[in-house]
Amino acid sequence: MAFVCSECGRSYPAPGFCTEDGGGLYDNAFSPLAGQQLGSYRIARLIGQGGMGEVYLGVQPEIGSRVAIKLLAIDAARSPTVVERFFAEARAVNVIRHEGIVSILDLARSPDGRPYIVMEFLDGAPLAQVFEDHRPMPLGALMQIAIWVLGALGAAHAQGITHRDLKPDNVFVTTLGRVKLLDFGIAKLKPELGGVSEATRTGALLGTPFYMSPEQARGAPLDHRSDLYSLGVILFEGVTGTRPFSASSLYELLRQQIEATPPPVRSLRPDAPAALEAVIARALEKDPSHRYQSAEELVHALQQLLPFLPKDSFATLTGRPSPHAALVPSPLIGATTGGAGYSATLPERRPGLTVTAAPPSRRIGAWVWVLGASLLTALVVGALGLTALFVFGDRDTITIVEAPAPDPADESRAPGTSTPSSAGVLDLKRFDAVAYLPRATELARGTMADSELTNLTVSSPLDSGLVDLSDEGTVVYSFRSPKASTESMGACAVWVSMSESGPQVSAPPMASCLSGAVRPPRCSVRQVLQRARMRAAGATLVYGAGGWSVVDEHGDMPKLVPDGC
Hints:
It is a single chain. The protein folds into three domains: 3-120, Phosphorylase Kinase, domain 1 (2-Layer Sandwich), CATH 3.30.200; 124-313, Orthogonal Bundle (Transferase(Phosphotransferase), domain 1); 371-561, no CATH class. The strands form four sheets. It has an eight-stranded antiparallel beta sheet with strand order 13-17-16-15-14-18-19-20, with helices on both faces. Strands 4-5-6-7-9-8 form a six-stranded antiparallel beta sheet. Strands 2-1-3 form a three-stranded antiparallel beta sheet, with no helix packed on it. It is 26% helix and 18% strand. The protein has 15 helices and 20 strands. The model is unreliable at 193-204 and 322-424 (pLDDT under 50). It starts with a strand and ends with a strand. Strand 4 (37-38) and strand 5 form a beta hairpin. The protein is globular. The chain has 565 residues and is of the alpha+beta class.
């Protein structure tokens, strides 16, 4: 018998708390794989279980990265059909390659021959749990979640992949309020991607009956418009608090999906706009040709609704409160911490496993950075970057003051432009955050030679897209050192913070090393504001792995703008 840390998988001879990270220890008799090595990962605990297998939290011992490991059950691994679907999930996800879909990192077999998938670990909860926590759902927040899901669906459909099992349990909401689409295990793939022929599938009931399209309920051939019907069911449930159809038998439920008309949305939720009711009704049309014909078309319809929804309904809903909320109060996420973690694929914990929680003073929550472009992440980075000088002292900070700005009265310069940084002159009143990135990278690499950009945060720009650093504007460039990130001690991040004093470079020892590198942005700040249709005054823009996030001075739901200029 051994006692295993629920956070890192280290084994101990007696119960208590892990000496490395304060995680509670539990008897691994309930989960024999706990504490064992599977590939390059150590199993920490079971986080989900279903009829087809289990999902475990895995930890890479050398660098501490956390993953979700989906392992087929022994009986399921004997079925060639089940194994084929298991492999299809990995193929589908890696063909799509979209930030809104859970990442598959590896596919291998356990020592006993069972296949397993290594995925990114998501901290939060499925949309089904968010529905339970927020009844009725705030309409603005629900529309934003739906738009994110449609972005992922659109990317899948563009690759000829239909999800076929879209439901709230397969839409995951992270602690930072971002959305990930899960479980492509029964997705319909093109033959060249390894998909099974439609003749083989015809007549087979694949999916979840509550969210099936009529053609799926009949076992008939289907295409991407089936996913749009399923999303219509999700929207109906989120708005009204109930599904459009329910029955005591599978036969009756499928009959309703095929023949019955759902009740009007406003009969169940009178405050819903009539236009929203019309959008959901069209998504739930029985005939696919009468529905929206693409994810992009449905996104456009939802975006047209946003100005007519209550302003206070635009709030970031999270799978559970974020641990960052304790550091930086935010109007987007509550300031409390705690709550249950959920698996990236099987949302419910297995009953019977009791893990002793460490005292609050010994644990700081799950630091899971799923999307580098998260607005809250960037706000944390920005706030810490600007105060690094005062917190860490001269030992970790280099201050660089460049040549003084030119005279604002100089008429030889084109209005609304900044002086190129290559000229050695820095205009602090009309600062171009994107144009200065090469120089900021040079400064960061003076501290850590392999620094790579992870985030760019711009606060309170001017209408021109430039920033007056001498007034309220701030700019923070966040970089990460891949080499330092693999080391167990020392700083791994570099921040270049722009203020009225010029650039300040800091290497804070407490920064996270988990944010991924991004390429330089293509869009200017002005272009992003124009595409977001937002005023510059009081706005905060964040560039990261998912493109740009823009939030206005009221702290409403951020708008996502692709970096496609």
